């Protein structure tokens, strides 16, 4: 019983937190690489190609192209921190789509539904507090970084707005992809094979598009610096690892559970900024993290209660059918006598 609980609850939670840490690291690496001149067309094609090669052997052993373009072009126009902030729209988009496609029950008078809605709102609010409220400095730092929420040097306000809109469109596409993946996993529950085929198709589709749009051949030459690190990291962890984790959790827990981890990325981004980039830590980051944790607890508690109710109903139906069988058999036996 304890092992099953760990597999169905503890393991998906840990995996999703790890995946969000991986994605935030990828956003930061890409932003640093784009400042070095890396084209996002080059980045997307190389990322999908490496991810496909990484999953190719695993697919045999074990059995959104457009969304990524919007995502990384949006980061190029703005920052990695804004990308984490905009990703807070994903739970709302996913929840709405899940309700539309009848993958989530929307009983407004039900405490479980109310907890899921309130938990989503609270977690998004906590992440927004991290972004828009600084407050007093808790840990100061003299090192400055171009990956802050404010517009980087050379970025106009128009580019910043366009970047935000592209990131919002990217998260809407990702939400729709979560819905599609969940339905696919019901038909063919083989996570690695599904992700491998997705990345293979994305590589085939992105290759001609990126090669035509990015016609500068010198842009495709990889240099041994942060750009090469970002591409290799994205191929091994950004697409292959994160996609497998997301697909597995979609199969096990559903799209709303996966999307609710998106607001966690802004807290991870703030923590990584302090540790690796020398950013200052503000009171708003701590307050937002606490609020976000409360929202997390509300949604996860609601999902756990919902699963317990479903298990109880299934067990009740099973026991009822078992109880009826002996009575029916005894009636038949007495009738024969």
What does this molecule look like?
The chain has 337 residues and is mostly helical. It has helices at residues 2-35, 40-62, 65-77, 80-86, 89-100, 111-132, 157-187, 191-213, 226-253, 255-259, 264-276, 283-336, and strands spanning 137-139, 281-282. It has one domain (2-336). It has a two-stranded antiparallel sheet with strand order 1-2. Residues 142-153 and 323-337 have low confidence and may be disordered.
What key attributes describe this structure?
mainly alpha; globular; 337 residues; 79% helix; two-stranded antiparallel sheet; 1% strand
User: Termini separation (Å)?
Assistant: 45 Å
Shape: globular
From the helix content, strand content and strand pairing, which structural class follows?
mainly alpha
The largest pleated sheet is described as: 2 strands, antiparallel
Series of H and E elements? HHHHHHEHHHHHEH
Number of helices: 12
Overall number of structural domains? 1
Low-confidence stretches: 142-153, 323-337
- Percent helix, as a range, is over 70%
Mean pLDDT level: 76
Backbone CA Rg = 23 Å
> Would you report the number of β strands?
2
Q: Which range does the strand content fall in?
A: under 5%
Strand order of the largest sheet: 1-2
């Amino acid at each position: 019983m304890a092992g099953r609980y760990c597999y169905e609850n503890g393991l998906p939670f840990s995996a999703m937190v790890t995946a969000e840490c991986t994605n935030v690291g990828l956003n930061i690496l890409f932003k640093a690489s784009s400042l070095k001149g890396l084209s996002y067309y080059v980045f997307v094609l190389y990322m999908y190609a490496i991810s496909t090669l990484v999953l190719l052997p695993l697919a045999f052993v074990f059995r959104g192209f457009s969304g990524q373009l919007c995502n990384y072009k949006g980061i190029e126009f703005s920052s990695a921190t804004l990308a984490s902030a905009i990703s807070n729209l994903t739970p709302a988009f996913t929840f709405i789509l899940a309700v539309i496609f009848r993958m989530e029950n929307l009983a407004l008078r039900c405490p479980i539904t109310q907890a899921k809605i309130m938990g989503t709102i609270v977690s998004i609010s906590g992440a927004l507090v991290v972004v828009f409220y600084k407050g007093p400095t808790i840990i100061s730092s003299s090192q400055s970084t171009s990956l802050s929420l404010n517009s980087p040097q050379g970025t106009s306000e128009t580019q910043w707005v366009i970047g935000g809109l592209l990131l919002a469109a990217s998260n809407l596409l990702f939400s729709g992809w979560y819905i599609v993946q969940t339905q696919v996993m019901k038909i063919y529950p083989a996570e690695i094979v599904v992700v491998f085929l997705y990345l293979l198709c994305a590589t085939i589709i992105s290759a001609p598009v990126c090669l035509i749009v990015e016609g500068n051949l010198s842009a495709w030459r990889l240099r041994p610096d942060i750009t090469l690190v970002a591409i290799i990291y994205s191929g091994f962890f950004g697409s292959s690892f994160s996609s497998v984790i997301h697909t597995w959790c979609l199969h096990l827990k559903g799209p709303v559970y996966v999307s609710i981890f998106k607001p966690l990325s802004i807290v991870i981004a703030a923590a990584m900024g302090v540790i690796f980039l020398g950013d200052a830590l503000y009171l708003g980051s701590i307050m937002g993290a606490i609020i976000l944790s409360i929202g997390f607890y509300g949604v996860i508690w609601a999902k756990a209660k919902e699963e317990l109710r479903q298990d109880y109903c299934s067990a009740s139906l099973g026991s009822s059918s078992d109880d009826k069988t002996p009575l029916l058999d005894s009636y038949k036996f007495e009738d024969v006598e």
